[in-house]
């Protein structure tokens, strides 16, 4: 709904009514003068004035028409202001001929009531309002922060605590706080006003223990101004160490050359940025320290120190230490005792140009060494070098005329150092002594010593100093050798000395020595054993190689020997102990005592009448011979055996085999095949093994295996047929009835009675598995009986079962039955007591013949009659005697 104002202009001043209408436009009707007047809404401005403890807010409603008194409302946040505003009009003004009006409203606020969220609103009408906020009215500048972490010196002086400081220039009432590794920490704060800038200088300090300080990574000073976000400054407590720093202590060669001798330099690289201390130490005790600041992008630092005079002695060594914190430190290696006593080294430089002079070279090492020569000579060159341990090495080289040098003049090199001096001398004798001659001693080869009538020669080649003497010593006897000399240079000579002896003399020697005597009394020698000692009697064997025979080569012999001495040996193969076949030479090294040599027997010796042996020889008189192989090519008839499969293997589903073993034959050529019922079988069903030799070489052996073919007949006969040159006819071994024990045959059963037992005999049956059960009147009788079938020559089996039966307990008419259960079916036979009475067999224990029961009863009756007659005779005799006595 829109509002329209109808102003009536007449003799009355500014009377108007407001009409409401539902139309989308307004219509103004002027009464009286009927003249239209424009309505102007006021503009609103909110002003603020601040003093020490109050803030004055002024709400200005300006340039509105017509004149009216607006009702001004004040809000504190969203609630009405609790104070009493002052509202009053101001002077009117004319704008483009029109008169406009102004109105103000004032309120007063205590500064203590203001905070960052305080907000005040001046509202004159529904859509005429203005808001004042202290923070929006006075935007603040970024505070100035100066953060300073503790100095390293404060952490190294032994104090238990260190202090960091943060100086801040910011608006009054700003808050300063500390943050270490994202944890708030309390500090100590002091604030000083800065009147000219209306700011405060705030100083905050944070005190920590040294141990706690080293554990922190980042230090933050945080500032919060009123009406402003937080600002902060951060520093790393310790800059991270990305690579382990390297610290070196050294002396500068430039200082030495300039004469500045007692200066040490500490150099460190791969350092992080930040503050470091550099400390120099003597024997681990600090003698100097200074602090350096390594800026960003720099990782090296170099510090120098003059060594105090008190430490310039041989008892001190020096180190330097670079420290980032009490626990982060890196130390150099020690310089060593750089003020120690000087050393000197004097050398003779080899001259390969055949010059007529000798060059001497002297090295002197010390803290600040200098070299002098005696006698004085012309110095060719000098040099100065710095060693890793801080000591200095100087060198000096002089040239000495050859005629002076060869006379044995002694030259002295003296090294002078601030502490003391050192010297060394050299002459042609002392210099030559350090050069050991080269001696190559070769004893005669065994091949030249095998003929005892010949002379043999040993040689000694020596490279030594000029005018050296060569001599031979054998078994304590010295022999001077006349030797040619070849000068390879002006300083040495090459000597080839020989010693010639007969083979007999040579073998008598135990050892030979080639001795070299150089000028100035220096002697060297080389000794060899003529023959290496035999510690244990060697064993020599000759054998046929089984592996070579398997490969089809039956003519390879191997000579094997053990417990041999080292040195040169010959291996000789012989036929019939006196016919030479082949010789070879081996050089057995130290630590090895065995050898094996092979030999192929020539075709002309591969025949009857030849045996072979081998001989290992160390010298013409020291030899060891193997046993003979025997006449390995003489024919020997093979022994042939056939081994049948077991009864368990025959009836199974897997294939059964026969083995034919052929042994003790010679030579190795042999032919083996199989026949069934005198008909040769196909070679695909048998396998012949390779021919192998016995370890002693006495003949060969092999075997042949045949898989028994199907169908299998009970009376088949298999034959192993062997053809060999030792027999004019084939050697045949056969086996028959192989399948008899596996062919089904019904057992025959017979029951017999012995004293107090019954015997059931099952015989002429196959296969062997069988079961026997005893029945008494068709009831099973329990008894223990272990059946052990016996196999006969025809391949059939027999077995018996015994049942204990006491005759007195066997009721008349009772029947015992032997029931035999077999794969072919059940068979039984019975026996009763009546049958035993009528006709029974007893076994006399003393005879092997059976007697009938009737005969036994007859004998018993005769015995009883005899006994009765004997008693009657005895009674009659006694009666007659009594009668005669009474009559008398």
For this structure, what is the CATH homologous superfamily of the largest domain?
Immunoglobulins
What's the CATH architecture of the largest domain? Answer: Sandwich
Major sheet description: 5 strands, antiparallel
Portion of residues in beta strands equals over 45%
Global mean pLDDT: 79
Kindly report the CATH topology of the largest domain: Immunoglobulin-like
Residues in helix, %: under 10%
Can you tell me the CATH class of the largest domain? Mainly Beta
Task: Give me the count of strands.
Answer: 67
Ranges where pLDDT stays below 50 over 5 or more residues in a row are 1-35, 835-856, 883-888
Instruction: Characterize the overall form.
Output: flat
End-to-end separation in angstroms reads 201 Å
Number of domains: 9
Task: Classify the secondary structure makeup into a structural class.
Answer: mainly beta
List the total number of helices. 11
What's the alpha carbon Rg, rounded to whole Å? 68 Å
